[in-house]
Write a structure and sequence with these properties.
about 110 residues, 3 helices
Length: about 110
């Protein structure tokens, strides 16, 4: 087996595994029992997209795709942190509201 044929097989396997992971991640987003599960699945989806972009960049030989993947990874990380803060504060707000309503009733 030549090096080119081996590399082609590796590309096919890489894109097949990334496609399978995309399908499984979408299932987790749809089925996910809670909001934090969905947020983590969205973060994983961004990471899989970064994997796709990097694999495509390696296949085509253009290094600009690596820069795009880095930017997407940073945006994905920041969005995950923002959603995690939202979920955390949403929990704190619901606690404050329940305390405020019980104080008002007494």
């Amino acid at each position: 087996m030549s090096g080119t044929a081996f590399l082609q097989i590796c590309y096919i396997l890489t894109f097949a595994m990334l496609s399978a992971s995309f399908i499984l991640i979408i299932c987790r987003i749809v089925i996910g029992p809670s909001l934090p599960d969905r947020v983590l699945a969205l973060d994983l989806l961004v990471n899989a997209a970064v994997g796709f972009i990097v694999a495509f960049g390696i296949r085509t030989g253009f290094s600009i795709y690596v820069d795009i993947a880095i930017a997407l990874g940073l945006v994905g990380f920041l969005s995950t942190v923002a959603l995690a803060r939202f979920i955390h504060r949403r929990g704190d707000i619901s606690v404050e509201r329940s305390v405020a309503t019980t104080d008002g009733e007494a």
